[in-house]
Model the fold of this input.
Amino acid sequence: MDGIHDLGGRQGFGKVDTGEPEEAFHSDWEARAYGIVRAMRKAPDWTIDEFRFTREQIEPADYLTRPYYDQWLQSYAALMVGSGVASVEEIAGGHTQTGTADLGPPPGPDSVAAEQSRAGVTFDRPEGSAPAFGAGSSVQTKPHAHGGHTRLPSYIRGHTGTVSHVRGTFVFPDDSAKGVDHSEPLYTVAFKASELWPGEGCTHLVHLDLWESYLDAA
Amino acid sequence: MTDHEHKSTGDVHHELHSHLPPEPGLRVKAMESLLIEKGMLDPETVDAWVETYCEKIGPKCGARIVARAWADADFKERLLENGTQAVQDLDDVGWAVAHLKVIENTAELHNLVVCTLCSCYPHAILGPPPNWYKMAAYRSRAVRDPRGVLDEFGVTLAEDIELLVWDSTSELRYLVLPERPAGTQDWDEARLASIVTRNSMIGTQRELPLDGGSA
Done:
């Protein structure tokens, strides 16, 4: 989706606010929102990519201006509405009109320490297909994407780069956003910034992690 | 529109935008109350997450990884080879970063991490990302004008230092291993960890002052 979230290389957003205080949360509501998102019972079919795609569809002005954790909560609210777990009216009012959601007990406080001490959700799928490219391969990215969720940013489309790492087989986000657990070889590909943005004096390399179906041999 | 099945996600966001109170604090309160009533949330678990991320998890976890890598060449080799596996050696760092890739700064090379599409970041090692990491200015410019961004952070990178930018487009999570400063040969790991900053592990800081220093 060519949405407002696809920010790489865009211009006009000004300077970075480097003077921000370093504490984890800057207000009580931020901390609470972060905790709620980590602690809540999620419906089983909400993958990280469904969450990301949902956030990408926030109204563009809200995406650029509303606080970050507020956008997380609104994205979970939209997922709840989409799954039929809650209505917009219930979310606005803070009270259920239909009893419990019947998703089983929510995670208890012990789940926090448990998540730190065992392997969490992994995204590699070692049984997946063999990679078509190797380190050093020259590859060209697809010139365009599609209206769904994708991790091929617009600034890199149609450009040629060199595979720096073959990472193994990973869940393919374009499908995962639709709840489909399909996997593909993943590569880290290096691009010369001077070719992405000619005439700007760039000397650096930009690396992106890209799935095989984003790439053709160059 | 009455049929929920045919409502697009964009339509739902539009309705939420119109119906939810504008103040984030009120939205959070309503959401917490609703989730508790729906049986989807235990408020004590919220408390536990907040406490963990305020007190236990944060840049000091990453600093311990960096300090261990500086002090122990064998650990550093394993860390660069398989970050996820190597950090299991350290208490409290845990498994929460499933696919950790550590990238090393040297005298000739500097690394900078960004997520242009959202805000991917090694939460379990560095805590929640700073706001600037999530905002449009950093996300748009880090790939196109990284030297300009570094300059705003007070980092002047010599022309002959190679600059590598890593756009976190997958579930791999990048952590920069800063260079060990000269004059720290006799320091133990705890003292080494005390000078490692959050920004140095993102790549928006390069030199580490021996007296600590901010960000």
Chain B has twelve helices and four strands. Chain B touches chain A through 94 residues (CB under 8 Å).
